[in-house]
Amino acid sequence: MPSLMMETTRASRQLPRLPADDALAARIAALDWASIAAQLDAHGCATTGPLLAPEQCAALAATYGSDARFRSRVVMARHGFGRGEYKYFAHPLPDVVATLRDTLYPPLADIANRWNESMGIGLVYPGDHAGYLARCHEAGQTRPTPLLLQYGPGDYNCLHQDLYGDHVFPLQITVLLSRPDEDFTGGEFVLTEQRPRMQSRAEVVPLAQGEAVIFPVHHRPVRGTRGIYRVNMRHGVSRLRSGHRHTLGIIFHDAK
């Protein structure tokens, strides 16, 4: 008898593929990565400008209704995560999601390796995403982590970190798929920085449809008067005031 995983994978392969933008990888390569690195160093987050076209955003958001594309669904209120829900994609990932994950990883790995060196962390990330996933899979982290999040009026996401196992790539992205002030109001992306012996700092990041924010998963280096120190980071989403909001989350490590 075929396993549930085999049946899910077979069903996913029979679904029509999402419209993929052949120029997406080129757009990512053409980003001002020096500016993105400087923003991450200074503020703990950076925005990309629009990466996905409106039709790509709509196609991704529409997949939320097809359970065959996903491996699990989480209702936030059941776990104290907030209100709203999200689903983790199953293999094979949609073309757009796979392209984002594979193409964004190398420049982010450069930033992550520089951060580790500055904090005295000896871990070095491979230059390509396949090499990093091989490391995750050897440790038993084999479940894909890209996800779609869905919010309605009054929904929100509590401050949290997306860890999932011993191997954690230190940067991730969120792409807004809905149109602010047209599809929804409220629902701002929020990032907090917990600094030693100081009050926490909050950052609210406005996004346009198709735009991504890059941010740390759990900590980042900050330069102080006595050198580099590590600050703890969390992210979430403020209360949605009206409408419906979909976002795509790209996490580069897989889960146990």
Topology (SSEs and partners):
Elements lengths: L3 H11 L9 H6 L3 H11 L2 E5 L3 H9 L7 E6 H4 L2 E2 L1 E5 L5 H24 L10 H10 L8 E5 L4 E5 L10 E6 L7 E3 L2 E6 L6 E5 L5 E6 L2 E6 L2 E11 L2 E4 L1 E7 L5
Antiparallel strand pairs: 1-11, 2-4, 3-6, 4-5, 5-15, 6-13, 7-11, 7-15, 8-14, 9-10, 9-13, 12-13
Task: Write structural notes for this entry.
Helices cover 29% and strands 32% of the residues. The protein contains seven helices and 15 strands. It has a seven-stranded antiparallel sheet with strand order 1-11-7-15-5-4-2. Strands 3, 6, 9, 10, 12 and 13 form a six-stranded antiparallel sheet that branches. Residues 1-20 have low confidence and may be disordered.
Summarize the entry for a quick read.
By secondary structure, the chain is of the alpha+beta class. The protein contains seven helices and 15 strands.
Mean pLDDT: 91
Order of helices and strands: HHHEHEHEEHHEEEEEEEEEEE
Oligomer: single chain
Which range best describes the helical content: under 10%, 10-25%, 25-40%, 40-55%, 55-70% or over 70%?
25-40%
As residue ranges, the low-confidence spans are: 1-20
Strand element count = 15
Helical region count? Answer: 7
What fraction strand?
Answer: 25-35%
User: Which geometry do the CA atoms define?
Assistant: globular
